[in-house]
Inverse folding.
């Protein structure tokens, strides 16, 4: 699947570039594509520099958590649930606790912590993989849920809006919360349908229903807060949780007589090795995405969507938010640039800018996640992971647009 996808990016880019040259008279498109190749290769190295530090730091703390028994305790607590959702993973396996930590970090918007935890979980799942080059059902479910991006506190979106002068930076909070919930739900249901997972099992419902009720209660509580209080709570809760995790790992490790410094160094060395192995996969995926964008294929897609919407007689305001939606699966930095450009050209509180911000906060860089998570363990055959992850991505985009029409239309 990844081989077909990668080849498809280049084939589509080639067709688009030839069309621009022969029909549009734009002979510079080929220079732009070559420039994009080198720019994306350079960006891959820049991303790797950031990942080196982040992975080294957090895998060091995770090794302390492992030796202190925190990961094993989480695995035991979640064993009944994962026994039904991931029957190929033995009860109490360390991957279960690591996945839980990853989901919690993602939900709180702690991206720097979530990625190392997720990579550690993926490597733990790879130990159970009988075919190392092919993703297992458990790995696919984990990746799709990770890529569906359930985020309760989208602090970075508030920051972007604040930087662009929004009088109420947290205006998109509830729309993002609703859209990201839809994305995660569709991701879970799509994988469950393919893998025939028993979601209606009493055990599964006993775990998921309380979480859904807590999430609903949390939404209701946050809806009563003022914009200023919501922004303060978001920032405080995110940073407090991040630091609390560090202190929990170190504190429990010290209490259980773990040599915390030596454990941190041991985990940090592993982080260095993991990061080093990711570079080829990042270069391959980001260069393909860069050529696809530079060829003008994205512009053609937007024009086709706008024309279709106008023919159907629908409101076409949301089309101006689609650049963020279309590039988000490929590149977080490109989507961020598209979001900021939309805010600047349309107005920070325009419908297009609000919809783009909601899309940015409720979707994930699917192909980046695929390249990093599967690349870290050498998986080349993704099976149904790409289709399910993109379906969750589409659900997040559609939900974001629908919710924005409800809130701001």
């Amino acid at each position: 699947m990844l081989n077909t996808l990668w080849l498809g990016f280049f084939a589509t880019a080639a067709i688009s570039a030839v069309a621009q040259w022969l029909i549009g008279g734009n002979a510079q498109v080929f220079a732009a594509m070559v420039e994009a190749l080198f720019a994306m290769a350079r960006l891959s190295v820049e991303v790797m520099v950031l990942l080196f530090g982040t992975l080294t730091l957090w895998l060091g703390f995770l090794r302390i958590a492992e030796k202190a028994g925190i990961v094993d305790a989480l695995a035991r607590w979640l064993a009944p649930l994962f026994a039904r959702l991931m029957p190929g993973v033995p009860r109490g396996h360390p991957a279960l606790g690591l996945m839980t930590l990853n989901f919690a970090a993602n939900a709180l918007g702690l991206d720097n912590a979530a990625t190392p935890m997720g990579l550690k979980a993926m490597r733990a799942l790879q130990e159970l993989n009988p075919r190392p080059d092919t993703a297992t059902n458990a790995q696919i479910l984990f990746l799709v849920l990770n890529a569906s991006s359930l985020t309760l506190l989208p602090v970075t979106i508030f920051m972007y809006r604040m930087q662009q002068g929004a009088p109420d930076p947290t205006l998109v909070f509830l729309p993002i919360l609703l859209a990201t919930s839809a994305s995660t739900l569709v991701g879970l249901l799509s994988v469950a349908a393919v893998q025939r997972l028993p979601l209606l099992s009493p055990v599964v419902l006993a775990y998921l229903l309380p979480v859904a009720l807590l999430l609903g209660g949390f939404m209701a509580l946050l809806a009563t807060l003022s914009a200023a209080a919501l922004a303060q709570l978001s920032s405080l809760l995110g940073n407090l949780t991040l630091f609390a995790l560090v202190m929990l790992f170190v504190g429990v490790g010290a209490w259980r007589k773990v040599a915390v410094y030596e454990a941190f160094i041991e985990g940090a060395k592993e982080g260095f090795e993991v990061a080093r192995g990711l570079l080829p996969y990042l270069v391959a995926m980001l260069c393909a995405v860069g050529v696809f964008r530079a060829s003008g294929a994205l512009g053609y897609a937007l024009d086709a969507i706008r024309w279709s919407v106008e023919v159907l007689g629908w409101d076409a305001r949301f089309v101006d938010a689609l650049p963020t939606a279309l590039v988000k699966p490929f590149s977080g930095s490109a989507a961020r640039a598209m979001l900021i450009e939309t805010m600047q050209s349309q107005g920070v509180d325009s419908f297009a800018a609000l919809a783009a911000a909601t899309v940015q906060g409720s979707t994930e860089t699917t192909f980046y996640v695929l390249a990093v998570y599967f690349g870290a363990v050498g998986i080349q055959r993704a099976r149904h992971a790409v289709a399910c992850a993109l379906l969750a991505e589409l659900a997040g985009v559609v939900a974001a647009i629908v919710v924005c029409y409800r809130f701001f239309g």
Summary: The chain has one domain: 2-408. Residues 2-408 form one domain. The mean pLDDT is 80.
